[in-house]
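Hi L.,

You mentioned the student needs an example of a multi-chain input paired with its predicted structure. This one should do, with 224 residues in total across all chains.
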Amino acid sequence: AQSVTQPDIHITVSEGASLELRCNYSYGATPYLFWYVQSPGQGLQLLLKYFSGDTLVQGIKGFEAEFKRSQSSFNLRKPSVHWSDAAEYFCAVGTDKLIFGTGTRLQVFP
Amino acid sequence: DTAVSQTPKYLVTQMGNDKSIKCEQNLGHDTMYWYKQDSKKFLKIMFSYNNKELIINETVPNRFSPKSPDKAHLNLHINSLELGDSAVYFCASSYNIQSSGELFFGEGSRLTVL
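Structure written out for the whole complex:
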């Protein structure tokens, strides 16, 4: 069965610290992988995507993610977090329809 | 200019009522979707339409009836509302069905059934 697991429900970091949000997937074929961000009261916005090729992908707002096939992972990273990054982050996998993880809430302390 | 807009943003209603949510996109995309986000933030696809044609219907109760009068609009009508229908409903669009992972979301319509 296809699924996405985000093990961390809630993460708190200090502003300026580095960030890594974990995502593991189960998918029968070569996955298309995505990270979305949802600010409070807003819709989701695509941060980055992986289809094929270079396993390190760059996205908007200074985010990057690395696809590791051997670990079935697609973790999201940012070297230095800003207060405005506080939001809910969703990992997703799929082709004709997306399967979303349950999200990781990021809190940023000044 | 809002790319994907949905109305209303908030909906509070009694059990058993019928309600509609409207969605419009001005991106020129071919494909539109309805997603449901429950109270635990879990997001699940309900329907997708490609050029007014229903493509995905994810075993949603037939109380939910989507309608796409043209490729820029996708409305959702819900009959006989139940408590469990309380959720945030998101409309989204993608350039075409092949890019169904690259979604543009509306701001959501929060439905509360009392």
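You could point out the following to them. Chain A has a mean pLDDT of 94. Chain A touches chain B at residues 32, 34, 36, 38, 41-46, 49, 88, 90, 92, 94-98, 100, 102-103 (CB under 8 Å).

Best wishes,
N.
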